[in-house]
Design a protein that fits this description.
Structural class: alpha+beta
Distance between the termini: 45 Å
Strand order of the largest sheet: 11-12-13-10-4-14
Shape: globular
Number of helices: 8
Order of helices and strands: EHEEHEEHEEEHEEHEEEHEHHEEEEEE
Helix content: 10-25%
Strand content: 25-35%
Radius of gyration: 21 Å
Length: 372
Amino acid sequence: MSSTAPRHTALDALHRSLGATMTDFAGWDMPLRYGSERDEHHAVRTRAGLFDLSHMGEITVTGPEAAQFLNHALVGDIAAVKVGRARYTMICVENGGILDDLIVYRLAEDEYMIVANASNAQNVVNELGNLGEEFAVEVRDDRDHYALVAVQGPESPGILKSLTDADVDGLKYYAGLPGTVAGVPALIARTGYTGEDGFELFVKPEHAVELWQALTKAGEGVGLVPCGLSCRDTLRLEAGMPLYGHELSLSLTPFDAGLGRVVKFDKEGDFVGREALTEAAARARANPPRVLVGLVAEGRRVPRAGYAVVAGGQVIGEVTSGAPSPTLGRPIAMAYVDAAHAAPGTPGVGVDIRGSHEPYEVVALPFYKRQK
């Protein structure tokens, strides 16, 4: 265990003044919840929630070969992303294992911003730095240059529109544009990790408090509440969104995770892990080892990551994430299970919770999909 003191976001004092329960997350002191995580969860599903995501890792890639370089370093066709748009993708190692899942924003013809998970950001910076030596690019670790505030939920467009002249209605999902929010220069992105409509606002750390307070005030009339990492986890779990270290890891390829669609074999140029990923794709088609599924409890006991999934007295898989679902009112889990037991409605599947085999229903992901 590292004895390094946790890092604090620009909003740290504000979280404490709001009575947040803080927790160490990937070396950052982050708000876990402010009051009831269940209430925060419901607020995002029905109204709006405000999140500090400043622990995420921003990396800027610039230079005449930026597009070519990212096509080589990442599994997606990043050169095909238009300026002002974003793409969900992954960075894999030579054997096809996932180093991290990322969102890449194309800010200009030869400028991209990559957002990595807090726990992997340093590894991604290092890997891109090494790979970039072969290309005419600059890879810049910009983690200290950004604070990230997200407003998520059905009321979020209205809240944001009251604070900006930017064309919020015209901003598509997975697009980003520069604008001013409450007088603060920001990159306004229509992205999120909750399964709801929402926005992520990248600003300078010195503007974070001002922005947070303006959003709070603008959301007063529509029930916006500050939200911690705890409800962010139940929101993304209901939406079937993977979390690195749970559904994704170095020992899994994108095809193992059921996310083979992010790998673009038809793009120009070679890319890291292509050979291994070609083999993984063929394996997944012929004989998938295990498949990521949803599990819904018949009882009240909550499954946790690492618990065995069982059928007929045999272990057939493992839970990767589990929690009570505030929206469904029952415990849910994502799990990798043997392909023979992966079909929705497969009978006889349970989770071993401390020696007791609790019955679970196998369902297709996601558990929750918002009404468009």
